[in-house]
Amino acid sequence: MDVQETSDMNLMEKVVSLCKRRGFVFQSSEIYGGFNGFWDYGPYGSMLKKAVEQLWWNEMVETRNNVVGLDSTIICHPRTWKASGHVDRFGDIMCDCKKCKTRFRVDQMEDPTTCSNCGSKDLTPPREFNLMMKTYVGPVFDEEHIAYLRAESCQPIFLDFNLIRIATRQQLPFGIAQVGKAFRNEITPRMFTFRSREFTQMEMEFFCEDEGSLDWFEYWKEQRWKYYTEKLGFTEDEIQWAPHDKLAHYAKAAVDIEFKFPFGWGELEGIHHRGTWDLQQHQEFSGQNMEYLDPVTGKRFLPTVVETSVGCDRTILAILCHAYAEDKAPTQKEGMEDDIRIVLRFPPRIAPIQVGVLPLSKKLNDKAAEVQKKIQQFYRTELDVTGNIGKRYRRQDEIGTPFCVTVDFDTENDGAVTIRDRDTMAQERVAIDQLKQYLDNKIYGW
Ligand code: GAP
Question: What is the pLDDT of residues 237-296, one digit of tens each?
Fold first, then answer.
């Protein structure tokens, strides 16, 4: 199940509004009225996205000796998608309202005989709608030159399996990971970036012997759950397991990790046992032998695959919903009530700006720039010089900056700065010489 709708749309509206106001995520091509299902990541959003991709890559590739990376093309040989089954079977059943022209996915309609938009009962019969996005490669725009934008980033992993195995000398069991764009002509893109037509996937295909593959399935389930709770800080009541009701004929197991979005539980990641299906299909369609030769037993066989597949955009949306908070902050003016402040409590490691550098007065701009220069090769920093200091703290809170370094009139004399913690709002005096050690510890726990 992709999404089950429930409540708190108020939080969703606040997140969407903050994303636009502060330059995280906004509609693609807004000056032309937007383009449904396509989203741009602005300055802070693109930093957050890169940090999330890097965190996943570090978790899945860089810290493991038995998982290697790939960066393949988005368009690959059209037979790929014939072999994978996407050309013939990758679709939704949909119908249109003849009166108001609204299009629906039949599986998402509460009452499949009535248009939920205008109430009309005059609907077209349900029909199959293929989600693959097409283009043409070459000078002639005809059937023969049709190619597809990939609908999932994992297929090129199967195509390159032999090349990668030989180049890296990996023996089973081992994995191949890729982060990249996928495209689906979704009938009803909605819930902000949750269901988009262009999105980024982070996928890992783990190749192993069939015997023991269910143990690997359990292993990856555990690894991925730990990643969400320990690395992203999601709580046990924000995520849940959702086993698939129906399994593909070749699969031995499949489960989703769902996140409690403001609009309800929605799929974040799928962990799938894919059997030998993909390698088998590509072997048949390409005529190339995709078998693995076990160097110890001399046995030849098609490896079984356990996949972990997560949407980067959905991860970011979950991170934003988890991080959004409104709390009380002491007002900057005497005798006034405390302010309500908006704060994004990102884990420091993925915050788009990890350290804000703020001079207390314009006269200290040069000194603050000097301090920023000392640390900007280690962290994502921003020199924030516009507006009074209270407003600048609020702005940094809203973009989720975990630490603000304030340069004041004492800095010149004592060689120290004040560091303000986003969450506790506590302030600490730290020597500039100790800044890296202090921030490394706070951000990375080193
Ligand atoms: N290779 C397996 C695969 O693609 P999927 O369940 O179709 O499986 C995996 O997609 C993940 O990709 C989903 O859990 C979701 O996070 C993300 N995803 C799928 N369709 C998406 C869409 N239209 N917009 C944003 N993310 C999407």
Answer: 999 999 999 999 999 999 999 999 999 999 999 999 999 999 999 999 999 999 999 999
| Amino acid letter, residue 4 | Q
What does the alpha-carbon distance between residue 251 and residue 15 come to, in Å, rounded to a whole number?
37
60-90 residue pLDDT tens: 999 999 999 999 999 999 999 999 999 998 8
Task: Give which of 204, 223, 272 is closest to 243, Cα–Cα.
Answer: 272
State whether the beta carbon of 420 lies less than 6 angstroms from ligand 1: no
Cis peptide before 125 (omega within 30 of 0): no
Q: Residue type at 441?
A: N
Q: Tell me: the pLDDT tens digits for 356-401?
A: 999 999 999 999 999 999 999 999 999 999 999 999 999 999 999 9
Answer for the pair 14, 320: CB distance below 8 angstroms, yes or no: no
Torsion of CA 400, 346, 186, 148, to 10 degrees: 100
| Structure-token match 């920023």, residue found | 372
Q: Is 380 in the pocket of ligand 1 (CB under 6 A)?
A: no
Give the list of residues 6+ apart from residue 264 with CB closer than 8 angstroms, or none. Answer: 3, 4, 5, 6, 7
Q: How far is the CA of 139 from the centre of ligand 1 (A)?
A: 32
Structure tokens at 392: 């600048």
Q: Would you give the DSSP letter of residue 402?
A: S
Three-state DSSP class for 95?
A: strand
Q: Residue 375: count other Cβ atoms within 10 Å of its Cβ.
A: 17
Q: Is the CB of 270 under 6 A from ligand 1?
A: yes
Find out whether the beta carbon of 267 lies less than 6 Å from any atom of ligand 1. Answer: yes
Q: Please state at what angle helix 312-323 crosses helix 9-21, rounded to 10 degrees.
A: 100
Atom of ligand 1 nearest to the CA of 311: 16
381-383 sheet: strands from edge to edge: 381-383, 355-359, 403-407, 416-421, 427-431
Q: Does the beta carbon of 282 sit less than 6 angstroms from any atom of ligand 1?
A: no
CB of 314 within 6 A of ligand 1: the answer is yes
Query: How far, in Å, from the CA of 181 to the mean position of ligand 1?
Result: 11
- Strands 403-407 and 355-359 come out as parallel
